[in-house]
Structures are given as C-alpha cells and as structure tokens.
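Margin note: ligand = adenosine-5'-diphosphate.
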Amino acid sequence: MKVAKFGGSSLSSAGQIKKVAKIIQDDPNIRHIVVSAPGKRDDADTKVTDLLIALFTNHRTGLDTQPAIEQILQRYAAIIDELGVNSGLLEKFEATLKDHLANIEDPERLLDALKSCGEDFNAQVIAEYFNSIGMKSRYWSPREVGILVSDEPSNARLLPESYEAIAKLKDTDTVNVIPGFFGYSKDGDIVTFSRGGSDITGAIIARGVGAELYENFTDQNYIYSAHPGIVKDPHPIEEITYREMRELSYSGFSIFHDEALEPLYEVKIPIMIKNTNDPKAGGTRIVSERGSVDEYPVIGVSGDDGFLSITIKQYLLNREVGYSRRFLQIFEDFGISIEHMPTGIDDISVLMRSDQFEGNNKFEEIMEVLETQLQPEWLHVEKDLAMVVVVGEGMRNAIGTAYRATKAFAENNISLQMINQGASEISMFFAIQAKDLDTAIHSLYHTYFDR
Ligand SMILES: Nc1ncnc2c1ncn2[C@@H]1O[C@H](COP(=O)(O)OP(=O)(O)O)[C@@H](O)[C@H]1O
Ligand SMILES: N[C@@H](CC(=O)OP(=O)(O)O)C(=O)O
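Resulting structure:
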C-alpha cells in the first residue's frame, strides 16, 4: 500500500486534478493521498497559499478584505466549475474564511488558520470529484485523522502520539484525501508546518499507516544534481540517501521539504519523487543506502543566500574556559538559531539566517550585548552571504573533493569566507558572497558532473 502526496503544481487547475485522478485509477495500491493548495498555473500566477497570506495582511492593515476573498474563491470556483462538482462548497469556503477573520484575534493563529484553508478546501473539492467519477473517496480533516502538533505557529512539529491515531486510516475501503500542511495543537488550534510542509504531512501519513512507499508527485521527472533553474539539463538522480537529501533540501533543493525525511528514515519507508505530468517517466528514489556511491561520490550541489556571519576574536581564547558557551548563550537568549560555527584558536564565527532579524531589533541588541558582556578584541560582521554545499556519501573515501571545489572557486574569482566539513563527512559547506551564488553552483556542478 502506498501514500501519495500531490504538490501545488500538480493541483493548480481542474485539468491537473484530472491527471491525479487518472494516476490513482491506474494504481490501486495508492490508498491515501495528501494534497496541497492549488499552486501556480504559470510563472505569472500566484499560489493560493500566497493569496491567503495576502488576505491576512489586508485584514491586519485595515484594508478591504473582500477583493482578496473573491480572488481566492475564484480559484476554487474555476476548478469546481470545470470538474462539475457541488458548487455549494464555495459558500462553505466563504463562510469559513469570514468566520476565521471575525473570530480569531491572535494574529499568529489567524495567519495559520487562513493558510490551512488552501489545502483544506482543495481536499474537499478533490474528494468530491473522485466520488463523482465513481472512485469511492473520503475527505478527512487533520483533526479527524488525529494529526497533533506542537504549538509553534507556522513552524509546527508532529507530536509522536499521532501515529497511533493515524493508523485507523488502514481500516477504510475509501481513497482517503487528507489536506497537507497543518495539524491541531492539543488545545485544538490550527497550526501549520513551515512553507512547503505538505511534504511533511505526506511523510507522517506514510509512517502512520505503515506504507511500503511514499510517492511524492511534483512537476519534475527527477531530483537533479543541481537546481534545474540554475544549471541547464543537470544530471538526473536515480537514487539518493535520506542523509544526502536532508543536506541538499535544507540548502536549496526546494523540491522536497527537509523535515519530511525525519518520519521515514527511522522506519526505512522509501520515497519516490515523480512527475504528475509524466507519471511513467523516471523518478528519484530516496532510500537508506544507495548503490551508485563509487560512480557518483558527490550526488548534488546546492546553495542558498540570506546568511550573515558574526566573528569575535580574543587573544588566548582557547585558554578561557566557558567563553564559547557564553558567546553562544547570547544567541540562544535572543532565540536566534545558528547554522554553522567555524572556530580558530583565538576566534569563533557563527553563521545564521538573516531573516531571523527581520522586523525586530535583535541584531543591534545582540551586538551591544556581545560588546558589553564579552568585550572581544575584535567583532566583525559579514552580511549578504550565501552557503554552498557539496553533498555525497562517497566523499568520505574520495580524495581531493575539497581541492576540486576550491580550485573551481579560484578559477571563477569567487572569494571564500569560510569552509566547514561536518563530522559525518558527507557534506562540505562554503560561505561566499551572495552575488557569487549562481556562478559557484555552476562551477561546482561542472567540476563534479562533467564526464
Ligand atoms: N535539485 C532539484 N531537482 C529538481 N527540482 C528542483 C531541484 N531544486 C529545486 N527544484 C525546484 O523544485 C520545484 C518543485 O517543488 P515545488 O514547487 O515545491 O513542487 P510542488 O508544487 O509539487 O510541491 C521544481 O519545479 C524545481 O524548480
Ligand atoms: N501550500 C503550502 C504547503 C505546500 O507544501 O505547498 P507545495 O506542495 O505547493 O510546495 C505552501 O505553499 O507552502
């Protein structure tokens, strides 16, 4: 038995939903499907999740919310109309949006409740359509399924007791349609995962029902060794390990959410990435061990911008017991999470995502506390950084991987701010200036994949 997740690109219109129905009709092993909100129909289009966020913003800033509500309802009206399903759903959807706007006062809770509507409405439409074409189907709200999550708005984590509740889906004879992206807190509030989080719901359902395979349908035939929007015709990956995928999806391979690996790697449920528009083509399998390590010691190169680094220098820092701990404690106190921490004998740098400082004064406050509490000899900030990562299980045994990367950077005049190799030796990170990101990915890709 399989669980399949269909992303926003697979469900952006009635035509796409018909393709999804065909995939399920052709494969009776798919018993449970997790769906996203309608995504972009073309490059100029807007995802329904973004329309819902715009509705929230209009509401918060006191603007008229009616145009945004209508825009959202029109997306569903077009789908409902073409699929020929019960148009009474639209009135229900309008009432739900208005009810949230009128009754939820806490802004973070309101934002999550509105965002959840994108997948929740789509799941209801899809289940109704499946029934209308004779495919016995049922919509399940995450509340009925028992998806309990931590109370962290826009960043929920699953509470493990949910798995026991989810197992009840196994006893059904319907194709179960479950909206992705959100669950309920113990207090009964809607809480969403981070963006792209329907992949996480799919993984949770796959584990809860003990699926033999989690199929993740998107708009690409494969996961490629570099982002296809940056490198032309990149190498298609047939097999990649959970660990490799986690490193790459965390650092720019947005095709699969990095947190969606966690529910599956422990129980070794494999993941298959497939294309809704060409379901018989290719596919990338995410597994615990891969066979192609000798042929491809490096499996992918990726990168992401939006980082900054803070470095302190203190002569004889290595002799000052507790200095590093006090340095890190300051970031913890401000709720800032740190991604990398390269150290020298007399200096420590920390790299973090800059978006954590948006809309607050934390950066200035941290700098002040660092100066007053630690009194370093030197305190230095680098902004507009990007992190590039080279990933592969075979790097552990391959000689010269770092040399090849630094040579590629030197040949392309890219200045390196930092190098960090994790203890697992399956990834190597490089901090560079954000303006050099695409050139860096190109040059690394060609270094490792041109044959
Ligand atoms: N290494 C990669 N291989 C394939 N696609 C990638 C990769 N990195 C990023 N992507 C992007 O991920 C997109 C699919 O993810 P997403 O838009 O979230 O799909 P969905 O709507 O199915 O959830 C692709 O269209 C592609 O632009
Ligand atoms: N709709 C949500 C969740 C999601 O997973 O969407 P998609 O499958 O289109 O990446 C978002 O846009 O973040």
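The mean pLDDT is 94.
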